[in-house]
Amino acid sequence: DAKTTQPNSMESNEEEPVHLPCNHSTISGTDYIHWYRQLPSQGPEYVIHGLTSNVNNRMASLAIAEDRKSSTLILHRATLRDAAVYYCILRDGGSSNTGKLIFGQGTTLQVKP
Amino acid sequence: NAGVTQTPKFRVLKTGQSMTLLCAQDMNHEYMYWYRQDPGMGLRLIHYSVGEGTTAKGEVPDGYNVSRLKKQNFLLGLESAAPSQTSVYFCASSQGLYQETQYFGPGTRLLVL
Prior knowledge:
The complex is a heterodimer.
Chain A: E1 9-13, E2 18-23, E3 32-38, E4 45-50, E5 55-56, E6 61-64, E7 70-75, E8 84-91, E9 107-112
Parallel strand pairs in A: 1-9
Antiparallel strand pairs in A: 2-7, 3-4, 3-8, 5-6, 6-7, 8-9
Chain B: E1 4-7, E2 10-13, E3 19-25, E4 31-37, E5 43-49, E6 56-57, E7 65-67, E8 73-78, E9 87-94, E10 103-104, E11 108-112
Parallel strand pairs in B: 2-11
Antiparallel strand pairs in B: 1-3, 3-8, 4-5, 4-9, 5-6, 7-8, 9-10, 9-11
């Protein structure tokens, strides 16, 4: 399974944009890039995913490098509620065909008022 | 829709005792997963199921057994609990593979003394 590398922690001010980076240099052509976040004492929740093109939804935007070896999750205006651990995950696109998620340690985002 | 529910929310066991964690989903999803999360760590896959009547091992299956007798339920069993199994257990489900969102339950906190 391809691995991802994320910074351990980041800080942001409320109402400002946040760019959370992720490196995945060994990504394969069929791997989707998924982002999940985990609020304190809760289960993870889906944020966004993409394959090659940039993606937008109501929660965030995902910018994918042209060579797909890195991506950035963008929160356009951070709120206190966005303080969480953010996981960048490559969805199992290999022959094992399980769809399982491989979680790393993620990035802990702190949002300051 | 209740989504993914887990029973119980919290449990204390003594070493050697057995217990079963129940996961239920009302979204008619084919795929179900059991993860564990130790303090400060990402989630690790214990077992998963790609359909009713099927189960398979994940990253850390030792000491656990699972069953998927009904499509909506996925049971995780500990036959003889050990302190190393103290963790938070999360269940998840999804309809498909690479692109499909995984929906997580709220977790079960297990303490083994």
